[in-house]
Prior knowledge:
Layout: E1 2-3, H1 10-24, H2 39-52, E2 68-77, E3 82-94, E4 100-105, E5 115-136, E6 139-167, E7 170-183, E8 186-191, H3 199-211, H4 213-240
Helix pairs in contact: 1-4
Amino acid sequence: xxxxxxxxxxxxxxxxxxxxxxxxxxxxxxxxxxxxxxxxxxxxxxxxxxxxxxxxxxxxxxxxxxxxxxxxxxxxxxxxxxxxxxxxxxxxxxxxxxxxxxxxxxxxxxxxxxxxxxxxxxxxxxxxxxxxxxxxxxxxxxxxxxxxxxxxxxxxxxxxxxxxxxxxxxxxxxxxxxxxxxxxxxxxxxxxxxxxxxxxxxxxxxxxxxxxxxxxxxxxxxxxxxxxxxxxxxxxxxxxxxxxxxxxxxx
Length: 251
């Protein structure tokens, strides 16, 4: 199980998993390390792993991506026209393995230079249980039960630069600055059992949420992505700390 405390830019999960594979040094024969700045190699290997290792691979310490099990996700938006405390739990992400990396700029020998990754996909679904309380576009909302959030036509971007830290005489990477972004083309929301099971109010609110999804997303996007920038900074730094930076590449 993976435990998160905010809704994740989906491509980050993929990138961190792939980075973990590399630093573990446990690549099977069908997956290879890449040279510095070899964008095409990294894209090919990244997408190969998504397609061929989606059920997980113990030799690579890779968890199953189809579906990806998530213990907890939370969006907390304290101000604006959307003020909510939304929590998902016992959830699964479906469709993650269908994403494709299409750009990988950087990957320099000098880690202080910026790196930028871009991935996109058609559909991804978060299915599980939820609990919500607050206001959406100034209307009250509350409830808990089963939920399905489906994102379509998404594009994810992650940009970071780093610095070197010395560990036992070896240079390890450490993230200095990280910025993420997620663009989506459509969002379908289905919350069951809103307003203590009042079907009419629940149905009406779901219609309202889907009719106004873009405005809602624009309100919560910064808080949601910002929370996970710090989470994944920690994950990437933990990955870098396992192996000297120059051993992540084949030169």
